[in-house]
Amino acid sequence: MNTITRLFDFPYYQLEKHPLSDALVTKYGEKWVKTSTQEYIDKSNALSRGLLRMGVKKNDRIAVISSSNRTEWHIVDIGVLQTGAQNVPVYPTISEEDYEYILNHSEAIYCIVSDQELYDKIMSIRGNLPKLKEIYSFNDISGCKSWNEILELGKDTSNQGELDSIKDSITENELATVIYTSGTTGRPKGVMLSHKNIVSDVLMSAERVPFGEGQTRALSFLPICHIYERMILYLYQYYGVSTYFAESIEKVSDNIKETKPFVITAVPRLLEKVYDKIIAKGSELTGIKRKLFFWAVEVGLEYEPYGANGVWYGFKLSIARKLIFSKWKEGLGGNLGLMVSGSAAIQPRLARIFAAAGIPVMEGYGLTETSPVISVNDERNGGFRIGTVGRPLKGVEVKIAEDGEILCKGPNVMMGYLNDQEKTDEVLKDGYFHTGDIGIIDSDGFLKITDRKKEMFKTSGGKYIAPQLIENAMKQSRFIEQIMVIGDGEKMPAAFIQPDFEFVKQWASRKGLNLADNKAIAESKEVKERMQEEVESVNKRFGHWEQVKKFEITPDVWSVDGGEMTPTLKLKRKAIKEKYQKLYDKIYREGEK
């Protein structure tokens, strides 16, 4: 079988082309446990046979929620897809309310969780999930069925023939998965991706992310429920790359040293953390060592690909690599040669310094709706340009609309949003998908993202934040008259708050506090502490990545005349941010100096 048309074809292709003894590797306790390509396929088939015996039919949906990436997830993924059912991966950190919505909206009949905490969350809303028949778990949990029971049920191979004929009947245009993304209106939207959507994106991206001999180990830790990491995992399977799963984001640096990967996928926030850690270590050095370290950093920050800086720069770079950057590489396992970054813009300085250190970061761009890659940098053939998201994939057409919006067309564009024709029609118009991002294509065909069309933004960890939702919830507090959530490209959301000055004055006088004017209110420690209580109580309604972690109180009343509001009383976000730049820096830049 040479052609891959459906997602479950990837493991079989791997078995034929690059069979591995360590296709998928997960750490349990202190031990890394390897699953071979053959075992991966055998277990997926057992799971499929078990599901068929449980009455799972074509187009049924099974939700899978895991708080870390692990081998079991992939066995379930292939096992579910082979039956013609759909895998609905769900973020582990969302609220119970969102779980309830997603499980009901997708009409999931089974739910597989990874651990006790997730099991408890689902059990707390169990009574509101009429379609859900049963919950299974990867870990052993008392009172919960184990996923091993499905494998046991499928041990008997007598229905393999039935499975084979179902597999043969599944076409590339059929729905494979529904992935829920946070919408600005509050309810997550279910993005429907077909086998063809994701397979085409994997194969088009494969040309851009090549692996040579000996470059065959990856460490995976970005959430697998997100299409970005999932698509990359299929790509690893295609190339015969052994995939090791990190225990958690916190343990990534230990796991990198243990597994010595050649490639990792990252988000800018992670690269920022790695860089900050390296700089902190360098700052502890003294004398000539310290001077050398920061000289190398200066050299790195000037980096341009393809020797554009000339011979003398090349000479300095080779010294910096030998003396300093080689140690950075050692600290990252000694074998790391490629990082692929997506989901939010990377600061050009980081792209320069890592490339200078011999660990280039290839930045790409895409959305869940585009399976996800639209464009990506590639170091070969002049395909790498810092500050851009690379050239569009071959087979994906990108054009810029009159208002600057990025439009795209290709086999990777979603089928639509589940049960929501109206929202589907809003983004799929005239044969193009409307991304909601603003960008330009330079004369060499590189795509550059310049702005967000909508007000939603992403933190540097790649999580979407819908500021209006949070703002509307916060404004229900008597203490808060106006609030603007900030944090585009930063590590966390924060906010500027304009208090309800009249109400706060009444509160202060009841407390015996003498706050003469608005400035005094804005600077009052007691007001800030009371405001903190308000913010924290509203935060509970949101996923942890959406919660406002810090805020500053502004001394002015926001108004149309003051330039903070439009005539229809919408926030002028850019103007407010500029006006309170000092407060912004206090929130995000304090402690960096």
UniProtKB/TrEMBL annotation:
<keyword id="KW-0276">Fatty acid metabolism</keyword>
<keyword id="KW-0436">Ligase</keyword>
<dbReference type="GO" id="GO:0016020">
    <property type="term" value="C:membrane"/>
</dbReference>
<feature type="domain" description="AMP-dependent synthetase/ligase">
    <location>
        <begin position="14"/>
        <end position="418"/>
    </location>
</feature>
<protein>
    <submittedName>
        <fullName>Long-chain fatty acid--CoA ligase</fullName>
    </submittedName>
</protein>
<dbReference type="InterPro" id="IPR045851">
    <property type="entry name" value="AMP-bd_C_sf"/>
</dbReference>
<dbReference type="Pfam" id="PF23562">
    <property type="entry name" value="AMP-binding_C_3"/>
</dbReference>
<dbReference type="Pfam" id="PF00501">
    <property type="entry name" value="AMP-binding"/>
</dbReference>
<dbReference type="InterPro" id="IPR000873">
    <property type="entry name" value="AMP-dep_synth/lig_dom"/>
</dbReference>
<dbReference type="GO" id="GO:0004467">
    <property type="term" value="F:long-chain fatty acid-CoA ligase activity"/>
</dbReference>
<dbReference type="InterPro" id="IPR042099">
    <property type="entry name" value="ANL_N_sf"/>
</dbReference>
<keyword id="KW-0443">Lipid metabolism</keyword>
<dbReference type="InterPro" id="IPR020845">
    <property type="entry name" value="AMP-binding_CS"/>
</dbReference>
